[in-house]
Write a structure and sequence with these properties.
Five copies of one chain form a homopentamer.
Chain A lengths: L5 H12 L20 E7 L4 E6 L5 H7 L2 E7 L4 H10 L4 H8 L6 E4 L4 E10 L3 E11 L2 E6 L8 H9 L9 H14 L1 H21 L5 H31 L7 H67 L20 H22 L4
Parallel strand pairs in A: 3-7
Antiparallel strand pairs in A: 1-2, 1-3, 4-5, 5-6, 6-7
Helix pairs in contact in A: 6-9, 7-8, 7-9, 8-9, 9-10
Amino acid sequence: MAHVFGGLANLRSLLRRRTAPGAMPGTLTGDPTTTTTSIRVMAYGPERLVEQEVDDPSELTALMAEWPVVWVDVDGLGDVAKLRGLGEVLRIHPLALEDATSCHQRSKIERYADHDFIVVRMINLGDRIVTEQLNVFLSQGLVVTLQGERPGDSLDPVRARLRTARGRIRELGADYLAYSLVDAVIDGYFPVLGELGERLEKLEEEVVTALRQDAPSRIHSAKHDLMTVRRSLWPLREAMGALWRDESPHIAPGTRVYLRDCYDHTAQLMDIVESYREVTGSLMEIHLSSVSNRMNEVMRMLTVIGTLFIPLTFITGLYGMNFDPALSRWNMPELRWQYGYPFALALMVVTSGAFLVYFRRRGWL
Amino acid sequence: MAHVFGGLANLRSLLRRRTAPGAMPGTLTGDPTTTTTSIRVMAYGPERLVEQEVDDPSELTALMAEWPVVWVDVDGLGDVAKLRGLGEVLRIHPLALEDATSCHQRSKIERYADHDFIVVRMINLGDRIVTEQLNVFLSQGLVVTLQGERPGDSLDPVRARLRTARGRIRELGADYLAYSLVDAVIDGYFPVLGELGERLEKLEEEVVTALRQDAPSRIHSAKHDLMTVRRSLWPLREAMGALWRDESPHIAPGTRVYLRDCYDHTAQLMDIVESYREVTGSLMEIHLSSVSNRMNEVMRMLTVIGTLFIPLTFITGLYGMNFDPALSRWNMPELRWQYGYPFALALMVVTSGAFLVYFRRRGWL
Amino acid sequence: MAHVFGGLANLRSLLRRRTAPGAMPGTLTGDPTTTTTSIRVMAYGPERLVEQEVDDPSELTALMAEWPVVWVDVDGLGDVAKLRGLGEVLRIHPLALEDATSCHQRSKIERYADHDFIVVRMINLGDRIVTEQLNVFLSQGLVVTLQGERPGDSLDPVRARLRTARGRIRELGADYLAYSLVDAVIDGYFPVLGELGERLEKLEEEVVTALRQDAPSRIHSAKHDLMTVRRSLWPLREAMGALWRDESPHIAPGTRVYLRDCYDHTAQLMDIVESYREVTGSLMEIHLSSVSNRMNEVMRMLTVIGTLFIPLTFITGLYGMNFDPALSRWNMPELRWQYGYPFALALMVVTSGAFLVYFRRRGWL
Amino acid sequence: MAHVFGGLANLRSLLRRRTAPGAMPGTLTGDPTTTTTSIRVMAYGPERLVEQEVDDPSELTALMAEWPVVWVDVDGLGDVAKLRGLGEVLRIHPLALEDATSCHQRSKIERYADHDFIVVRMINLGDRIVTEQLNVFLSQGLVVTLQGERPGDSLDPVRARLRTARGRIRELGADYLAYSLVDAVIDGYFPVLGELGERLEKLEEEVVTALRQDAPSRIHSAKHDLMTVRRSLWPLREAMGALWRDESPHIAPGTRVYLRDCYDHTAQLMDIVESYREVTGSLMEIHLSSVSNRMNEVMRMLTVIGTLFIPLTFITGLYGMNFDPALSRWNMPELRWQYGYPFALALMVVTSGAFLVYFRRRGWL
Amino acid sequence: MAHVFGGLANLRSLLRRRTAPGAMPGTLTGDPTTTTTSIRVMAYGPERLVEQEVDDPSELTALMAEWPVVWVDVDGLGDVAKLRGLGEVLRIHPLALEDATSCHQRSKIERYADHDFIVVRMINLGDRIVTEQLNVFLSQGLVVTLQGERPGDSLDPVRARLRTARGRIRELGADYLAYSLVDAVIDGYFPVLGELGERLEKLEEEVVTALRQDAPSRIHSAKHDLMTVRRSLWPLREAMGALWRDESPHIAPGTRVYLRDCYDHTAQLMDIVESYREVTGSLMEIHLSSVSNRMNEVMRMLTVIGTLFIPLTFITGLYGMNFDPALSRWNMPELRWQYGYPFALALMVVTSGAFLVYFRRRGWL
């Protein structure tokens, strides 16, 4: 059951990763688990697209002057100097950069003077639900994404669409690219919820058919996973709502209808999560009710059996008394009857039968 | 009890039906379970009405030019090419069309540049509550409805009213037609809730009179149904509120009073659902209280019976001891009394009687 | 206990009374349980007042032209034709008229072009709480009230004040009359709540002093009654808030201060209902705690008694063994002691005493 | 336990005190428990202050013309005629006057054309929490306070400050006086909550150390008291928020900062009440958990004792059987062994010991 | 367990520290536990910084005229006269000063004419969570901080940054200093929550592996701590939101982006607290479920053992009866069989075996 609170350990480790209390705002801590920061650039217009690895952030200036849209895709938070250089070249606000590198931000959208700063959390379902922070900076003709914690992300379909020029993505601006990235992240929640749903169904099967003792902790574990998703989705929905509703100079009016769609998807996801939570709550109630039913049944049956034998034992005790029938004709004359023993046995059978009938009438059996 | 979570399986299957994560927005998936898409058109003015089957969406342009109001009634989401053609001819926004064909949208109202897009979920009560998506596109003089999942819908009364020209429906515009369709869908909730109410009454009867062991799972099942209706009604009410309150160029001011009426009906429905939920909660409490009462009664009675016999068995044991009265006059002289055995029996009766009186005084019997 | 869900049956019957799904808006169903619709008119100015029965709605036009304020008081929804005529003469919107005749509306206030439409639910406490719909239409110089379900209403004090010209009611306009009517309905809630409170007090008395087995269902029944009142009050308060706050051409600014007072009363009523609900919840908790306490006490005492006898029975069994003291001096020499039997009895007394002391020390007795 | 629902009886009695349903608005009922209404006046400017008893309300006109601020302090609601006269002379709106004399108003602030009407409920902690209504009318240069139910109030400190001219109270206007009065009432909540807190601490002590059977009802009683305070504070906070935020012609901008302070205090009070409620909830949980723990322990120990004796009794029964060892060497040869009896005793000790070890290993002991 | 309600005693003591009810607003009580009030000043511009101890508040005027930013850092609330002098020299509103010295304010932000008044509560984790009030007054070029209860605060990192001129803190104005102070306080919550999380993990370990009887009270204690943090964070977040969103003449637009960051941190903290609360709730449920499981298992096993012996004891009783086989061949002929005793033993073994098999089949064992 130790895994129930993986989430707890996770939260605590994030608390440790923070900059020291009272540190200067804008301090970059970077990620101590890695030392590299790779910068890949995709620059494109409707007709052409180049992809290249960039080592010195200052090379970006030329690219930004040449291409309509430039996507700077930063992976790994190990090289603090490079990150700081990047922030200066691309005019990212120090506070935003600090948030982007601290890995434990909630999903949010913040408007800075020179750019919009969007944080969304990508979801991953391994043994437990894990979320990873994706930072998106959006300004005129420029999208910067920054991610760190683990290799792999949900953005490959967007890269593929850019390369193959499927749809109108290459014709539209940086705002549409940012939307596509956020949308890909949100789409990543759907299969995770599908998988969670399958696990819930399996759990349900077990709760209903077998009285497994680890059911409560497994149900709690499922509940905890759902809470993690919910806590991740809630600010995501809020952020998407703000992104769609609040005007931004960096987002064309035509793109906002797509952002509304994103918002809509988060609302659907919340709906599904709420359904799952409700089902999980029902599972616990049904489990407890089954446990209590079974306990009641066992105790009742055992007590009934015990009670049935009590008068029998009394009768055997009766005729085990040492009153001497030879001394007085009042002293247990049955002992001297020819059919005394069968009479005693019959007495027992009749008594038990009477009890049985009585119990069954009262519905206790 | 497996049917408790039909809803769960249902939700999960919807998750599978989605377009792949990261897919281009506006991608149409269609419905893999069918291959056809039929387009029926009702075009009418105050005086006349024509109904015809349309095969090529481009035929619609002529109809729309000729008639004051055109209702394009699309059934089945199997023919993706036809759907795409339809979207182009009728200038439906690709995002709206994608939503309309994905079958798992919540009720909502979205304003696009060229049209309003209304999603409402129709309700059906078979073995379980099932909801089906109805998409309504409304622009000047044009209403497009799109539905897919199952045959049959709640719109036949509207078709009949159009044909017989009952009321003023033919004199009023496309907005009134859209209202009539949405109103018909909302009206479809009332008989379903009536039926649910009857089931609840029957369930109540059983819970109160018989202690059936499947009561908890049946109550949970009813609860689940109510939650499904509630989850369907909640966004419906919100959408109706937005439809009524927010100005739209496609809706005449005179029609808005009808939309307020729709909103009012959804509020009434929510009221009924809340009452049912409250009753269902009471049922569970009463069931649990009955179960516990019965268990308590059984255990108490059994224990009382057991306790009554305990002193009797003790007395029999007493006189079953092998102290020899012949050896000493202190050794159970009762054994040698003439009326020793009746005395022992009387002792037992008196003891039991005393216990009975004591138990009854304390109210344990 | 069948009466617990009288409310349920009630709700369901309302669902049956509705117009068919998809019916034309503005369809009047009337009330199938009656065939009559009586129209009484009170027309008045500061100086004079006439009361008359009106049979043909068209007679009202003359009265409205002549008198400053006309109150058309319609009772019974049986005569659909008369109701439709009334609607036309008094220019009541068809949707409002449909709502007014369908008897299951929540309290609300709706502004139509020609009039305000106010629905309030009157309360009645028979065996169960019952609410009845009162419809009030307010336009310049005209108040129409429409009610149906049962004879008798809460409006008689207003009629009396009009006849005797007490207060300034005859000097003020139709809006003040409408206020007086709504106020009378709201005032009708106070004695009902008083009566409910008395029942709760009686119930409390019983729950605390006697452990009656029907307590849970009676508490649930009280809870249900309170929920009915609450569900009736909630929209009433909302409607009163809207009536007071939103400007209406039919309500003079001087009257709005009175409507605020109405709103205030509904808030007070909600307060009382919430207090009652809280008390009812406490009653259930106290009942359950008493039941469990009593059960615990009984079981503990019975088990203690049983346990006290167990060593006694053991001792009797011991000396009932058939080891022959004559064969060996190790074989239960007590049997041959002169005071063997008294010794055994003493042993029993000492053992029981030790147990008693131990139990009491541990606080089990 | 009857005192649990003192609050209930209280509420109900208030319901009885109301004017009859449908009564004319503005009807004064007065207080049937008293017959007097005393009017004390404090009129003051920065330099001087007069205090006098006024018998005829019309005397007030002269005082108001002469002094910058006049505080009319009315005590007792018995003399309806005097109250009505007061209302006319001071131009108090009839509805406000009706509310002021009906004693069961929630805290509120209402703006009338000629004055602001503030209702606050003073708190008193006797055996139970009791609240009393204080009505404050504020217009230019005039403050009227009206209270009825009991002698004594929380306003004496303000009177003292006026007399001694401590602080700037005499230099500031009527609005500052009204603020001071309301502030004194709110300050009166703090010691009451302090006392409640002490009671809670005592209760906690008892719940934790002793298993008193009246704990649930005492906890409920405390909960009830807290609910009473909460129900009183909630509208008070709302009213203070409205008083501070909404502009009023009778309140100088400089005074509003003081009213914000009042609002702040109510928020603090709510905070404390919420903490107490949380603690009370914990107490109940801890009590129930203790009760169940103790019950479990008792039953387990008793059952263990019983179970330990069961095999002993069986062995005694075994050697109490009447098989005759003389007839066959298979018939209980132990009976004829020299050390048969010690052997049997040893058998018992070993069996019991084995059971004890087993129970302890399983952790049942 | 007495420490569960340390918080309660704490709250109550705060209630005692208040000024008397009805006291003049602006009354300073000071802190009776100390007699000193020390004033340290840090005055700085981009180039230079002086630090000095100030004894007479009037010395501050000269400093304020000379330096761009002056930070007046007041420690200890014992010297009421000095505090009053400070308030006059620095033009602090009397109400704000009263709040600042009363030590039990909730976090808040209040705008006064001459300054902003910010209250934040610093957190400290000793044995229990304790919060301490930090008052910040912000006006043009001046920041006053006032704290009292305990030595030590969270502000040292800011002092260090000022002295070493790290970052741009010395170049920016008083508003940035105020932000840095508040930010340092908020940062102080993170390690406390980290520590709380570690305690929760340890508690979890214990709840899951051992059934400790003090688990409920320890879980409640953790819950209580979390509630304390939550009650402290909630108004803090609100205050930060107001600080960031509402325009103030004392806060430059460029500083507001930093305040948004502060707000963001409080939201993150709330998130963590909510996760912890959820985990704590799960712990209680798991504990209760374990306790009940274990109790059920023990009782079931004991009852099964008891039940297994019941028929055995019956059989021994049977053959302990005194029917004389010599008198009749119907009287227990087994007693005279050669293998009668082995037969009886076998009978017992078979009966017990049958019961065992039956119990195991029914799944009771």
